[in-house]
Amino acid sequence: MKKRFVLNFALDAADEPITYVLIKEYDLKLNILKAAISPEKGGELLVELDGDDKNLSEGLDYLRGRGVGVDAVDKKMLFRREECIHCGACVATCFAGALTIGAPDWELKFDAEKCVACEMCLKSCPLKLFDLRFG
Ligand code: SF4
Ligand code: SF4
Question: Quick one: fold of 2-72?
Answer without folding.
Answer: Alpha-Beta Plaits (3.30.70)
